[in-house]
Amino acid sequence: MTQTAIRLKNLRAAMAETGTDLVVLGPGAHMHWLLGFHPHGDERPCLLMIGREHEVFLMPALNAQGTRAETDIAFCEWADENGPDAALKQALDRIGAKGAVKVVLDETMRADFALLVLGALPGARHDFTLDTVGALRMRKDAGEYAKLKQNALIDDRAMQAGLAALRPGVSELEIADVIRAEFGKHGAKPEFTIVGSGPNGAFPHHATGNRKLQAGDAVVIDIGGRKDGFPSDMTRMAVIGHAPDGYDEVHAIVERAVSAALAAARPGVKAMDVDAAARNVIAEAGYGEYFVHRLGHGLGIEVHEPPYLTSTSQSVLDEGMVFSIEPGIYLPGRFGLRLEDIVILRADGPEILSSLPRDLHVAPA
Questions:
Q1: Does the keyword section mention Metal-binding (predicted)?
Q2: What ranges in the chain are assigned the alpha helix state H?
């Protein structure tokens, strides 16, 4: 049985459990997870429609020939001069979904695509993919783990290259260039390279710029690359010559927060409780107002995907879920500090994908 066949089988089991009659996916990560590819996406409605027993593509004729090389799923084609309405009705009939009562829509598809589907099913109620495709995507299989692990080790090498390039007078952008080049050496495409030096580190999503590093700077490096369809993500800290005043205390607090989250993350635990384990460490140390974001996010085909580890998330963690643990403290005008690792949750707790320690790197001044 192919991977697509296995995933369709598992999806239909989830549909049966949730009383779902029809799942509709647009070109994007959900479709890519299910099929191993997705057709070109533009303003023309292109939808994969999965019923209880059959599936079909609503396919723009313009893209049909190219897509046919990737799949043997049946097409209901439509041309620009006719529009998609008749083909959509044909597709619903073909998979026995004209009377669908509960429809699951890809939450990332275009709004006009979603309204087109709902307009053809006026009696249906709709939901999004959290309990169907989303639930399945959160639990990574061995093949997905292998690709995520591979990318984490490439990320380690890119981080080490960036750390080795740190010195006074070099700009954030020049450090980012070194990191991107290292990703390329290993066949990975850079996804993002955040280099925040000195006061810029206090912006969690700083736009890497022309500021030149200075002695006494704390430097946040948050990077990720992509190879074989999967990404990486990691944050490490460095100082130039010596740490700024108060840095060592803050670093120790954030490291304790990481350790608390790692200890709390177990199958059956709510995501909000893992967030609380880290957040309480920082709050009790007097820095609660400076931890300004969620503890973590899932990682898979997308850099940010469920589960999200927030202070309100009711998601229950399970074996095979992959997510970040990344507490931080950001002191405006002074420095920011974030330590981030990606973990896969095992029966006995989290396995960190990176092999690079979270120790502070001290660059020469």
A1: yes
A2: 3-18, 29-35, 61-68, 85-94, 111-120, 133-138, 142-164, 172-185, 247-264, 271-284
Tell which of 137, 152, 186 closes a domain.
137
Torsion angle in degrees (nearest 10) through CA of 270, 271, 272, 274: 100
Amino acid type, 198: G
- Tens of pLDDT along 17-61? 999 999 999 999 999 999 999 998 899 999 999 999 999 999 999
Close Cβ partners of 199 (under 8 Å, ≥ 6 residues apart): 332, 333, 334, 335
CA distance 337 to 220: 6
Question: Which residues, including other chains, have CB under 8 Å from residue 53's CB and lie 6 or more apart?
Answer: 12, 95, 96
- 97 lies in the same domain as 177: no
Residue 223 shares a structural domain with residue 259 = yes
Q: What is the CATH number of the domain that holds 245?
A: 3.90.230.10
| One domain for residues 107 and 179 | no
d(CA 158, CA 175): 11
Tell whether 83 and 173 lie within a shared domain: no
**CB-based contact 231:151 (threshold 8 Å):** yes
**Residue pointed to by tokens 């999004």:** 128
Residue ranges of the chain whose pLDDT lies below 70: none
Q: Do 300 and 151 belong to one domain?
A: yes
Q: How many domains does the chain have?
A: 2
Q: What is the pTM of this model?
A: 0.95
What does the radius of gyration of the chain's CA atoms come to, in whole angstroms?
A: 23
- What is the model's pLDDT at position 295? 98
Q: Are residues 132 and 268 in the same domain?
A: no
- 336/169 Cα distance (integer angstroms): 20
Q: Kindly tell me the sign of the dihedral angle through the C-alpha atoms of 78, 79, 81, 84.
A: positive
